Amino acid sequence: MDQGVTASRNGALLVVGDVVTDVVARHRGPLAAGTDTAAVIRTLPGGAGANVACWAAHAGCADVRLLGRVGADAAAWHERELVAAGVRPRLVVDPEAATGTVLCLVDTGAAAERTFLTDSGASLRLDSADWSEGLLDGVARLHLSGYLLFTEPSRALAEKALAAARARGVPVSLDPASSGFLVDLGVDRFLAFAEGLDLLLPSRDEACLLTGLPDPADAAAKLSRLVPLVVAKAGADGALVARSGTVLARIPAVPTTPRDTTGAGDAFTGAFLAALLAGATAQEAAERGCGAGAEAVRRVGGRPPHAGTGG
């Protein structure tokens, strides 16, 4: 099923994925071992799946839905933030686990690179019982966060959602999410799941890891022999669009000065999917994605602005 050129079906985008609390600590220079390092610290809503949904709504998708799992400790806050961002959340409240938390250490130097310490908590305790066929009613595209593949219960949910979407003819996309977790999962297991996808949105490093090829263009081309459309995100180098073993377009990044690169890939993905749903070509959608990525890195945290938030 090749839905990559245009996928305007006047329907909703359903995102299934992680909803977490981000604690963003922005520091300058190396961390000082054994003593204090001055930092600016903020607590913000995050999670790759939730971020993608918010950026899709920000990019103009009128009906964005999100299935995720949170703890009772922060359920009301996360729901309010998602609704304010234009997303229709369906949050399962976990009776045992707390909401997932990610500590984002952001070096405020020129590259604004970040390191994550992750406690997945409730976010990856989604399981197949949380899925229902009705979730696909009115849905024109399903997007899965790659984090779902990294625990057995949430992987079972992802497999169930993928099968249900394919049975209805709904195209499915996935963002691999984490090269570190991909190594733990195993490339072969990931690629076996990816065979059922219509669209794969890896980072440059993830594409190279999944193929064993050092060149991102070669990696994207190889992956597009497995998945009909592959869009490799390359940060300051823009993005690559590949189909059927060939790189069709190289999209330049939008020049900007980064403050925090957290969520830049999620911003790209959300804007890309929104553009596809509006009828854009894959190249046009990638241009929109690069624009959203540039907007994201100018902000602290992984979400777009909405009423009541600052920069």
From TrEMBL:
The keyword Ribosomal protein does not apply. Its EC number is 2.7.1.-. Residues 13-304 form the Carbohydrate kinase PfkB domain. Keywords: Kinase, Transferase. It comes from the Bacteria. This is Carbohydrate kinase family protein. SUPFAM superfamilies: Ribokinase-like. One of its GO terms (molecular function) is kinase activity. It holds the Pfam family PfkB.
